[in-house]
């Protein structure tokens, strides 16, 4: 029986104009299940140890999503084998999600088996599509080798005593997270499809926010909203969710951020922004929602340290991650809101110090106002700064880049794929 050849998908060809596929959305939903399980774990045991465990478990969950997303972005394929590998990775991710509530404990082995399977599926995907790679498959072979080794380590950890697993997992995750950096040292990372990757990141953020809204409403329904405290708290939670969405997508700024992911060095920029810096953003959104849900369960009491910390630090992580993205991508001042976000983060920290004895409704009202101010400031400031930039364009600083020899520029462009 002759196997079918790899079908490389061209997103610009007729019939393939979509930015992402239905399979990719299905894949995202499985990962959001894992995110919801992490939030639920903290909600049911709001302690410092649980918070640390939740963040640590978030790393392999997030990196599993990153692995498949980047592979499908650089090497899109529509053949049956490629789709089967993605579906298998999604199933393994579901196993990870089911194991999260009992990690540490009896869930350690299935969690490790799930992550090892995801890594093996990503490695197999790279090996499968390497023939279609524009660099002759060099990057694909590097990732396939690395992910196979990492998957083997996770698989072997299931045979070790439970006390050794956290150390083994930690070492393996450090290597895993550094894979893009190691790949860039070994040879230049291939550019990404900036439109597709931007849409994938945006869709994942929306799905995470939506899932947290559903979880909050479900919890509110369980409490039957018998008191005005809970009713007000649910309304404030809705405003907070909208503010998180609005602040991330206001004026299409997310699209402008990702528009900088172009050129021959876009692979390295994408690894920094989409892989590394979206991690604290997603963690921040999840932590904020977990804190709100924790406050909802005790709406008639003081908010307490666990809920207040999750809400305030989660919102601060959300703002700071966008600030770092703007700095890394050199987003123009009209779109960055860097100073505004720093002031708002300081306000959140002050609120955390002073508001731990407040009621959940009062505390969340203050956070909702801070996040709404962030979104509204972007709406007001953007057009104003753009008008100022038109009327008083900044003078270009003199630097060696303006006198760069054209021969050097041509050589750099020719070598950029090597």
Structure description:
This protein has helices at 22-44, 48-74, 80-99, 108-129, 138-157, 165-177, 179-186, 194-223, 228-249, 253-259, 266-296, 304-329, 333-336, 338-354, 360-391, 406-415. It is mainly α. The chain has two domains: 22-186, no CATH class; 194-388. It is globular, with a radius of gyration of 23 Å. The model is unreliable at 1-18 and 388-418 (pLDDT under 50).
What labels describe this entry?
0% strand; transmembrane; transmembrane helix; disordered C terminus; single chain; membrane; Low_temperature_requirement_A; disordered N terminus; 75% helix; 418 residues; 2 domains; Low temperature requirement protein LtrA; 16 helices; mainly alpha; globular
Count of distinct strands: 0
Q: State the end-to-end distance.
A: 37 Å
Mean pLDDT, to the nearest integer, reads 80
Q: What's the number of domains?
A: 2
Helical/strand content category:
mainly alpha
Low-confidence regions: 1-18, 388-418
Helix and strand run: HHHHHHHHHHHHHHHH
**In angstroms, what is the radius of gyration?**
23 Å
Please state roughly what percent of the residues sit in beta strands, choosing from under 5%, 5-15%, 15-25%, 25-35%, 35-45% or over 45%.
Answer: under 5%
- Summed up, the helix count is 16
- Major sheet: none
Which term fits the overall shape? globular
Summarize the amount of helix as a percent range: over 70%
Pfam families: LtrA
Transmembrane segments: 20-39, 51-72, 84-103, 109-127, 139-160, 232-249, 270-296, 302-320, 341-358, 364-380
Keywords: Membrane, Transmembrane, Transmembrane helix
Biased composition (Basic and acidic residues): 382-393
């Amino acid at each position: 029986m002759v196997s079918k050849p790899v079908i490389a998908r061209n997103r610009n060809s007729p019939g393939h104009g979509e930015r992402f596929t239905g399979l990719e959305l299905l894949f995202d939903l499985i990962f959001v299940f894992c995110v919801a399980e992490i939030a639920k774990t903290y909600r049911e045991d709001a302690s410092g140890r649980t918070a640390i465990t939740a963040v640590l478990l978030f790393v392999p969950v997030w990196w599993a999503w990153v692995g498949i997303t980047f592979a499908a972005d650089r090497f899109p394929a529509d053949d049956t084998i490629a789709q089967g590998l993605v579906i298998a990775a999604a199933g393994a991710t579901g196993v990870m999600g089911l194991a999260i509530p009992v990690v540490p404990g009896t869930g350690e082995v299935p969690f490790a088996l799930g992550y090892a399977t995801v890594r093996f599926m990503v490695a197999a995907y790279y090996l499968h599509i390497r023939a279609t790679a524009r660099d002759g498959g060099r990057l694909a072979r590097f990732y396939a080798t690395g992910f196979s080794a990492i998957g083997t380590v996770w698989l072997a950890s299931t045979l070790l005593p439970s006390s050794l697993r956290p150390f083994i997992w930690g070492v393996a995750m450090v290597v895993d997270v550094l894979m893009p950096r190691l790949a860039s040292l070994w040879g230049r990372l291939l550019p990404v499809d900036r439109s597709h990757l931007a849409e994938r990141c945006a869709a994942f953020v929306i799905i995470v926010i939506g899932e947290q809204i559903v979880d909050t409403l479900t919890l509110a329904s369980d409490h039957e909203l018998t008191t005005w405290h809970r009713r007000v708290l649910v309304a404030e939670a809705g405003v907070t969710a909208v503010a998180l969405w609005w602040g991330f997508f206001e004026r299409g700024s997310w699209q402008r951020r990702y528009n900088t992911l172009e050129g021959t060095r876009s692979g390295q920029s994408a690894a920094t922004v989409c892989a590394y810096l979206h991690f604290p953003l997603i963690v921040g959104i999840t932590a904020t929602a977990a804190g709100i849900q924790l406050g909802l369960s005790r709406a008639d009491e003081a908010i307490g340290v666990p809920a207040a910390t999750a809400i305030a630090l989660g919102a601060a992580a959300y703002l700071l991650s966008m600030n770092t993205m703007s700095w890394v991508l050199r987003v123009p001042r009209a779109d960055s809101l860097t100073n505004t976000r720093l002031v708002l983060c300081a306000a959140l920290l002050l609120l955390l110090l002073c508001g731990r004895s407040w009621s959940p409704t009062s505390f969340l009202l203050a956070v909702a106002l801070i996040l709404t101010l962030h979104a509204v400031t972007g709406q007001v400031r953007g057009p104003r700064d753009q008008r100022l930039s038109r009327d008083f364009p900044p003078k270009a600083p003199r630097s060696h880049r303006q006198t760069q020899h054209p021969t050097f520029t041509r050589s750099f462009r020719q070598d950029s794929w090597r």
